[in-house]
Amino acid sequence: MALSPFAPASFPDLPVIDGVRFASAAAGVRYKGRTDVMLAELVAGTSVAGVFTRSSTRSAPVLDCQAKLGSDPSTPAAILVNSGNSNAFTGSAGEKSVAAICDAVAAATGVAADRIFTASTGVIGERLPHDRITTVIEGLKGDLAPEGIEGAARAIMTTDTFAKGASASIEIEGETVKIAGIAKGSGMIAPDMATMLVYLFTDAKIEQPALQALLGALTDQTFNCITVDSDTSTSDSLMIAATGTSGVDVTESAGFTQALYGVMLDLAHQVVKDGEGATKFVEVRVTGAATDLEARKVGLSIANSPLVKTAIAGEDPNWGRIVMAVGKSGCQADRDKLTIRFGDILVAEHGWVSPTYTEDTGAAYMRNETIEISVDLGIAGGLGTVWTCDLTHGYITINADYRS
Amino acid sequence: MALSPFAPASFPDLPVIDGVRFASAAAGVRYKGRTDVMLAELVAGTSVAGVFTRSSTRSAPVLDCQAKLGSDPSTPAAILVNSGNSNAFTGSAGEKSVAAICDAVAAATGVAADRIFTASTGVIGERLPHDRITTVIEGLKGDLAPEGIEGAARAIMTTDTFAKGASASIEIEGETVKIAGIAKGSGMIAPDMATMLVYLFTDAKIEQPALQALLGALTDQTFNCITVDSDTSTSDSLMIAATGTSGVDVTESAGFTQALYGVMLDLAHQVVKDGEGATKFVEVRVTGAATDLEARKVGLSIANSPLVKTAIAGEDPNWGRIVMAVGKSGCQADRDKLTIRFGDILVAEHGWVSPTYTEDTGAAYMRNETIEISVDLGIAGGLGTVWTCDLTHGYITINADYRS
């Protein structure tokens, strides 16, 4: 698979988060010659929060995680993730696989089963060969190390072309608080609660209910604003673990909120930049909508339009397709109040192409790797931004051939 | 552009509809070396009904047609359509173009301007060079002939790879009533009121309000059940002209309703079969939904999913993606009650793959040109069927390159 043009030269340097240790292994769930299982062990007292797909066909591990979020935080916790098989739509066998994995992690680490969170990502509808996973857990336990986060990021990849990590360090009341996160996701990406798999770790101190509320609010501004193909995974999970080992209470800290937002937005953008077949990163900014919700709906109508996405792939400044996507959104819009810009270039206003716009200017702009499309609806003050990528032959090649 | 594998060997033999005459011409609006304008002249007393796109950025001709549907049917009427330029998002110049074309048709034919219905299809946002059209109208008037419908079907094509026509003749009260229809559409196809351009002609006798109600109801069961790419045109128009020349009143005729339904469904299927880049025709039947509306929503969620459509393109029986699309639809569904079939093959039930299903059987089925996917949700009695095509490299090639 061709490397995304946005792939970084190397995995970023992530800070060690006190109270978290990682290990990864090659269990051969589906892939050969690479790691596919990661274990993260979390110190006693860690608050764990999560948001998950709203899909009505969500996977057994997702249902299990949702049931465990309220568990007692005073004991250690663990996260175990495998790639290659999503354990979704696997009936009662799916639940048994989750239980078997949790039992094995509990036996190896001593973590209580109701503090063990699992996730599976990959093909839907095939039975998870969980014994391949349980076999490697004892070894994972022995390999746990504070520096293992890059290995963890690699083990959870599926069609990703690069491993995704982001971090922040902030000073709060003279103390340093650290955040490190990893994500995987490339196709089947559309905003509905969380998207793909994302794990965030911080040494900040914050109670689970406050952490859960913060995660939900920031997800809405980050992972819920990206789309690759409008398809929603059955396994989407986004979790954060706050070990509290820094001793710094961040419950009321605007600085921590900002830093966490930055890390989440960075990871969300990396997911889009690694969108299947992506050659362009596209920001769609909508202003002047009736409400913020309508702004996002218009943004998604543009970002999910196959005709807009193929025009961008072809470096064609076909702004008529943006007009079309605004029109079909079902949101309040008025042809004669609509303004469209490519970057700083005024393309259309007052229901027609701008007299200053030329096709040559538009075509030159479209050759950029990052494209900014701004749409002002001229109705009221609602605004929103969404991010997506183009739709290319690469997407077709990857998805017409994923299982073979 | 490669011919659709579903293209018929030749245009069907359509019956002459008494009271309708057609002509077509090459005006060079955008295309070279082919016809791009068609004129249909309708005898006095013709009832004209229409349904149009709900897009909030709909074109000037659409707005004009909507305003004229209530005009006095006792005088002759005319329909003029051009391809190559949609006259959409062209500001006040767009309205002036419509007026100029209507004036020229009125001058040449003597039809009152409020009985002249126009449509434009093609690129959005470029000024329509309407003088190229008005120049040929006098000649079109001279060429009008009852047999000209095939030429009309060819003149309205854009990215279509074949001209689309369908017809029916039925006996009602010992008299023959005829219906003939033409359509164009290939990309930017999604159900929202009418889709693409469709013109239906019949010699049946029926008042405009009854005809309008019938057209709306049948559109909902035909053109509103197809999707190629989930994008909605700014120009979609579906019109029917009933000349009444057969003398047969069909207001209460179930036979006429059935025949018209058949013609409309035939044309709707032809549009999907000529979907940009299509190599497979896909029928998605949903049963057991909470309501008929939810059934259609689930059907469209499957039919619009890029991951389902690419799997079909790759002849991959990846039924897990169907589960995903059901899950993301937002409709009531229960993993353990879901049943999925490919044709007659039972693929999955009770939340898991069927014990009788094998990948080989599924893969063999996927090699068919027509694919039937049946999904039973097991909730209640709601049902609905939608039709779509696969998503291939052909779609990307056509749309990343449409304007160049």
Care to describe what's here?
Two copies of one chain form a homodimer. With 404 residues, chain A is α+β, with helices and mostly antiparallel strands. Chain A folds into two domains: 20-273, 4-Layer Sandwich (L-amino peptidase D-ALA esterase/amidase); 281-399, ArgJ beta chain, C-terminal domain (Ubiquitin-like (UB roll)). Helices cover 31% and strands 25% of the residues of chain A. The first copy, chain A, is built from eleven helices and 15 strands. Chain A has helices at residues 60-68, 91-109, 130-143, 149-155, 208-221, 254-273, 292-303, 306-313, 320-328, 359-366, 393-399; strands at residues 20-25, 37-42, 47-52, 77-85, 116-123, 164-172, 175-184, 197-202, 237-242, 281-289, 339-342, 345-349, 352-353, 370-376, 382-389. In chain A, the strands form three sheets. A six-stranded mixed beta sheet of chain A has the order 13-12-11-14-10-15. A five-stranded mixed beta sheet of chain A has the order 3-9-8-7-6, sandwiched between helices. In chain A, helix 2 packs parallel to helix 3 and helix 7 (292-303) crosses helix 9. The radius of gyration of chain A is 22 Å and the shape is globular. Chain A starts with 19 loop residues before the first strand and ends in a 5-residue tail after the last helix. Residues 190-195 of chain A have low confidence and may be disordered. Chains A and B meet through helix 2, helix 8, helix 9, strand 13 and helix 11 of A and helix 2, helix 8, helix 9, strand 13 and helix 11 of B.
